[in-house]
Design goal:
This protein is α/β, with parallel strands linked by helices. It has 18 helices and 18 strands.
Length: 493
């Protein structure tokens, strides 16, 4: 490394952010970059430690440690330190075809596994990656030229989320003619309608879509494969099909009063908001969804946090977020050592905004909904919540058990269910005759992407189950290699 003592000389410094109360007035991204000189200092903190778990992407204690894409992180950081941004981009694009997305929405698995994270704070690899990607776009390094040679082979990609875009980008690079089918009115899938604009500006997504179109990829929107178009029709028209339709079946709450109006799945709520913003060029946020309402978010994960932030921007009167599990510790425990993913409490941007606005953390741990209450119009007006206690269950897993007599009623005129997902929409794989696993996702060959149906592959959440954008991109790139090898006898992707 060019600065072998950088980790001793420079403290961790993240880019500035717009203050919480200020950014609540809009839906724009609020993270700001460091100066190139400051970014170089942060890159200098990379130790080239010899045990780069940051790029390992291995499973430890059931969770991923390091980057699933195996980004060449020490090399990239060294190049940023030396100001060689173009070569840093060349290193990054070798392993990640969509870094402008992971640089914004990835939870930074690389940083959790960074050796520096053990004491003084991880290297800011997440921000370095984003700035390398943005440098590449602003300096014309992202190639918009179509492939020099076309193979004459055709591939249909079903779904335009991160897995579908990654697969389409790679297959088109190889020279295959790629058509992406998307059931929504605009391409992007989860990136478009599942992630709020303040985390991922849709102009960034549109930039990538335009680039893909310029290089020869065709997008067909408002077309639901399995309903509007059959699997048989696609297989008759295309040489290969890649299923990348995600795992979009949300987990519901089977409690009394669930039928009340005003109870929405988080993904539907976030999608409605984004569509209204896009349709009005960000001039008409759908404030009526949450304005003046007590909002209850059921689920303590990233999607729940996105709901908190979105509801606040729509003028919610109050926001409460329920989490079934116990409150995590502030620091690693003895049974959660580095480089495992740290199971510690994180206060994300939405919770930070709620604290700034209301003066208190919106989260209530070890709490669940046992029933909903409706008014005379059939609209939800409250939720009966109940405390839970942790008890040891089978296989060492913790079981959360309701505490008798702990019920209370919370006011709620809008309820957002962010309890995760239970699998893919079954009609899509069924339309091809693709088998499912017991987890409700598409079954593929061991350590591969081929389904039981010849010429049909699967990638992303539809194969892996609900996961991260970075994993979806890795899966899309993997499925592209598999489909390419089946077409050409080998793959250079």
């Amino acid at each position: 490394m060019g600065k072998t003592t950088g980790f001793l000389e420079y403290p961790r410094q993240e880019g500035p952010v717009v203050p919480p109360l200020e950014r609540l007035g809009n839906f724009r991204e609020f993270h700001r970059p460091l100066s190139p000189a400051a970014q170089a200092q942060q890159a200098a903190r990379c130790m080239d430690c010899g045990v780069p778990f940051c790029q390992a992407g291995v499973t430890l204690a059931g969770m991923t440690a390091g980057c699933p894409l195996h980004n060449l992180i020490p090399e990239m950081n060294d190049l940023v330190f030396h100001g060689n941004w173009e070569q840093a981009w060349r290193r990054l694009e070798r392993t990640n075809c969509l870094p402008e997305f992971t640089g914004r929405v990835c939870p930074a698995l690389c940083e959790a596994a960074c050796t520096c994270a053990r004491q003084e704070g991880a290297v800011c690899t997440h921000e370095n990656e984003l700035q390398v990607a943005e440098y590449a776009f602003s300096h014309g390094l992202v190639n918009a030229a179509p492939p020099a040679v076309r193979t004459g082979k055709t591939v249909a990609v079903v779904g335009s989320g991160p897995a579908g875009l990654a697969a389409a980008w790679q297959l088109n690079r190889r020279g295959h003619s790629v058509t992406v089918f998307e059931k929504a009115d605009r391409p992007g899938g989860l990136l478009r309608y599942g992630i709020p604009n303040m985390k991922l500006d849709k102009a960034v997504l549109d930039r990538r879509i335009r680039l893909m179109e310029e290089t020869g990829v065709t997008f067909v929107c408002s077309t639901d494969v399995g309903r509007d178009v059959t699997g048989e029709e696609l297989l008759a028209k295309f040489d290969r099909v890649v299923l990348a339709g995600g795992a979009g079946r949300p987990r519901d709450l089977a409690v009394p009063g669930r039928e009340a109006k005003g109870i929405l799945f988080a993904v539907d709520f976030l999608g409605q908001v984004t569509k209204a913003l896009l349709d009005s060029d960000y001039q008409k946020p759908p404030r009526k969804l949450a304005e003046g309402k007590n909002v209850l978010v059921v689920g303590g994960g990233d999607t729940g946090n996105d709901c908190v932030a979105t509801a606040l921007r729509l003028g919610a009167k109050s926001v409460t977020q329920l989490e079934m599990m116990p409150e995590p510790p502030l620091a690693r425990t003895a049974d959660n050592p580095w480089p495992q993913w740290p199971k510690v409490r994180k206060t994300d941007y939405g919770q930070q905004e709620a604290i700034a606005l209301f003066g208190a953390d919106p989260r209530r741990y070890q709490t669940t909904v046992s029933a909903f209450k409706a008014d005379k119009r059939g609209r939800v007006c409250g939720a009966v919540v109940q405390k839970l206690e942790a008890r040891p269950g089978e296989n060492g897993r913790t079981v959360m058990v309701p505490i008798a007599g702990s019920e209370e009623v919370l006011p709620a005129e809008l309820v957002l269910i962010a309890a995760g997902f239970v699998g893919c929409e079954e009609y899509l794989p069924a339309g091809f005759g693709a088998a499912l696993t017991g987890r409700g996702v598409v079954a593929t060959e061991s350590e591969g992407y081929a389904t039981n149906v010849p010429r049909v592959f699967a990638a992303g959440d539809i194969r892996r189950g609900p996961s991260l954008v970075v994993w979806a991109i890795a899966e899309g790139m993997g499925a592209a290699r598999a489909a390419d090898a089946s077409l050409m006898g080998y793959s250079n992707l």
